[in-house]
Design brief:
Residues 29-89 form the HTH tetR-type domain. This is TetR family transcriptional regulator. Residues 52-71 bind DNA. By secondary structure, this protein is mainly alpha-helical. It has 2 domains: 17-75, Homeodomain-like (Arc Repressor Mutant, subunit A); 82-202, Orthogonal Bundle (Tetracycline Repressor, domain 2). It is built from 10 helices and no strands. Helix 6 (103-120) packs across helix 7 and helix 8 packs across helix 9 (164-186). The longest helix is centred in the middle third of the chain and has 26 residues, at 74-99. The protein is elongated.
């Protein structure tokens, strides 16, 4: 039996347009972040179909009416969490590109750090699960994998790699497939090892000139 008062999930600070629109007061921003954190926790744990707005309100420590004040329905919550998921990945990609100008190292870091986020970041876990369940959610969600694939393609284009687009598609498919299998079989405990295998097989370290 779960505890009567489970610990509240950490807040998710809104960074996208969905998180900022119409919110000018600090209290409203904090409340919205608290709701998003609770929604991410619920979606990651139970999946969209099984979660209710009441579940999210209880996790956030507020009334269902307070949740509805900021989000009109469960679909809007799913969209907001998914937007934050992609915004977080975009920030991660930008930071890696700034810190690792070598394309091969940038790709290695992108997959490795994203794998670590899948292990440790509830928002990332929720976003990935919502994308898998997108056909069950009655709202438009961003098309998955496109930006990730394009980023890797752009980086490989700056190298002498003969097939940047093909390799980027294979890397993306292998990585997200591996994270799903790792989640299903081992609760993602082995995802970093599976990522290393993917990189070693598909993108081996180039020879030193």
């Amino acid at each position: 039996m779960p505890p009567a008062n489970p610990p509240r999930p950490p807040a998710v600070n809104p960074t996208t347009e969905h998180g900022r629109a119409g919110l000018t007061q600090d209290r409203a921003l904090r409340t919205r972040a608290q709701i998003l954190g609770a929604a991410a926790h619920a979606f990651a744990d139970k999946g969209f179909p099984a979660v209710t707005v009441q579940d999210i309100a209880q996790l956030a420590g507020m009334t269902k009416g307070a949740v509805y004040f900021h989000y009109p329905n469960k679909e809007a919550l799913a969209r907001a969490v998914t937007d934050e998921f992609y915004q977080t990945l975009a920030h991660l990609t930008h930071d890696i590109e700034q810190q690792h100008p070598d394309p091969h190292e940038a790709i290695t870091q992108l997959l490795t750090q994203t794998a670590q986020a899948f292990q440790n970041n509830t928002l990332i876990q929720a976003g990935a699960r919502l994308q898998i369940e997108r056909n069950l959610i009655n709202t438009d969600l961003p098309t998955p994998y496109i930006n990730f694939t394009q980023t890797i393609t752009n980086w490989l284009t700056r190298t002498t790699h003969p097939h940047p687009q093909t390799t980027a598609r294979v890397l993306t498919a292998a990585f997200f497939g591996a994270q799903h299998i790792s989640w299903t079989l081992n609760n993602r405990t082995d995802i970093t090892e599976r990522t290393k295998e993917i990189l070693a097989t598909i993108l081996p370290t180039p020879p030193t000139p």
